[in-house]
Amino acid sequence: MDQDALKRAAAHAALDYIPDDAVVGVGTGSTVNFFIDALATRKHRLAGAVSSSEVSTTRLKAAGIPVFDLNGIQELPVYIDGADEITSGLAMIKGGGGALTREKIVAAVAEKFICIADQKKLVPLLGRFPLPMEVIPMARSYVAREIVKLGGQPVLREGYTTDNGNLILDIHNLQILNPIDLETRLSAITGVVMCGLFARRPADILILATTDGIKISQH
Ligand code: 5RP
User: Fold this and answer.
1) Which atom of ligand 1 is nearest to the CA of 100?
2) Most buried residue, 18, 85, 178, 185, by most Cβ within 10 Å?
């Protein structure tokens, strides 16, 4: 089974977790694109969605799924999103698609964060995938220097601007032995909008598609 088939399988399995008539939080990325396609097949049983990016909003609307402003939403039972890396403890690196800030905001509001991933995303230790950080443009160099002090090697994502008008620094060579502590330290650097470590609020459920079938882990 190729990686796309596994992504599609994880995305389809997530449909079992969507309550009828609910507003569902929708993340960003190629795995989520499969989820949006699957969601479209049962849109008559949905109130609508809140979205973590302009790209997902466009895809949701094209599928005929209403997209709401998060500020008008009181309850969000589930948020479905992918990850770049995830551990057995359900801490993640996210932001490969640059949408980490809105993703973390929607995740904060949601009762349950359900991560959909293929088996390649499950890692014993986070950090092989460069950690994305969204930064205010004028703080780029200062933030980069502070990250170097913490042992990381920041690389500017060239020619890329986030949906919020900011920049992404991808941090290489980080040894992420304590993801909660590192998330706290990186988030505290002035000029950082959001850090792509999702450890303080990890996923609640992982739907992992493997060549041996779907495996579910709960936090
Ligand atoms: C986007 C993300 C995605 O969830 C992450 O990059 C995984 O993407 P894909 O499903 O394409 O592998 O955090 O900002």
Assistant:
1) 14
2) 85
3-state secondary structure of 144: helix
Distance CA 219, CA 206 (A): 8
Residue with tokens 């014993």: 124
The distance in angstroms from the start CA to the end CA of the chain is 27
Provide CATH 3.40.50.1360 ranges for the chain.
Answer: 3-124+200-218
Instruction: Tell me what pLDDT residue 175 has.
Output: 83
Ligand 1 pocket, Cβ-based, cut-off 6 angstroms:
27-31, 81-84, 94-100, 103
What are the start and end residues of each CATH 3.30.70.260 domain in the chain? Answer: 131-195
Q: May I ask the CATH class of domain 3-124+200-218?
A: alpha beta
Atom 1 (ligand 1): residue with closest C-alpha?
Answer: 97
pTM summary value: 0.97
Query: What is the pLDDT at residue 219?
Result: 82
Enclosing H/E stretch for 217: strand 213-218
Protein residue closest via CA to atom 6 of ligand 1: 96
**Catalytic residue flag (residue 103):** yes
Give per-residue pLDDT as tens, 183-219. 999 999 999 999 999 999 999 999 999 999 999 999 8
- pLDDT tens per residue across span 123-147: 999 999 999 999 999 999 999 999 9
Distance (Å) from CA 77 to ligand 1 centroid? 21
At CA 95, angle to CA 186 and CA 89, rounded to 5? Answer: 75
What's the CATH number for 131-195?
A: 3.30.70.260
